Amino acid sequence: MPVKTANACGKLILLGEHAVVYDSPAIAIPLLSLKVRATVEPLIGKPQGSIQIKAAPLGIDQDIDDLGKAHFLAQTLDLLFDYLGLLKRPTCRLTLSSELPIGAGLGSSAAIAVALLRAMSAFLGYTLKPQELNTLAFQSEQAVHGRPSGIDNTVITYEKPVYYQRGKMIEFFQPIREFTFVVADSGVRKSTRESTGQVAHDLAANPTFIQPHLDAIAELVRESKRSFQIGDIEALGRAMNADQEHLSALRLSCPELDALILAARQAGALGAKLTGGGMGGHMLALVTPEIQTAVSEALSAAGSPRVFLTQLRPED
Description:
The chain has helices spanning about 65, 70-85, 110-125, 130-145, 150-160, 190-205, 205-230, 235-250, 255-265, 290-300, and strands at about 5-15, 25-40, 50-55, 60-65, 90-100, 160-165, 170, 180-185, 270-275, 280-285, 305-310. It is globular. The strands form 2 sheets. Strands 1, 2, 3, 4, 5, 6 and 7 form a 7-stranded mixed sheet that branches. By secondary structure, the protein is an alpha+beta fold. The protein has 2 domains: about 5-170, Ribosomal Protein S5, domain 2, CATH 3.30.230.10; about 175-310, GHMP kinase, C-terminal domain (Alpha-Beta Plaits), CATH 3.30.70.890.
């Protein structure tokens, strides 16, 4: 069998994280500048069904059987093998590398799943259709996050901006103008499982406080759909700022994120908020090309260990 390599992008949630877990809409875009890469190649001289996995971002360099069946990489491969009706595992080496930081709100687990599924299915001589890939990646996400919304695997599978609401038809859409975002790492790592678990606990314990914030986030997403489509960056920026206030009330921000968001706004960002699971990870700021350098420098000065730009163009 020939060597097969596949890539997957990251994702950024503009509006709607956490509320989307409870069947509300969210808007997300692909983070095309950072990739996960998976390579599958034949493994000579090893027993039938031996799969050696080397995934430096995850600190893994061992046989799949040593990972245990509960590990999400093993579960992802088993999902694929079962789906394809494979009776014997291939004998191969799987190598994973990632430009995406792990556990930082940029969709790394979904990107790993998508890249892995693409590469392994190609190695086995089968090209997964997007809907098949998306379904398998969502099932993999369930092993990682417990109760994922499905938005990460969707935007990463299709590599298009999405207006996503669980249980409804996916809407792909493009703005009519270019958007520029500055993304900054808080330096704090938290798992999405932890943050979604916290919201679920708080919602059960105090629904009269938590539910109105989730409802308000959902309404911001619905109102912002047209703003995104027509390129009204001022309105979108205001919605991002309002969304952040609700996310903070839900205990999903942290001092490091708060400092970065304040720095971005003071430097002229039209909107700034956390993105992804929260409690750490990354924030993003909506900027114009004229102020992108000033905002980037302000975020670095505020303590972010990594700041980068990403753009969404009408033709992407």
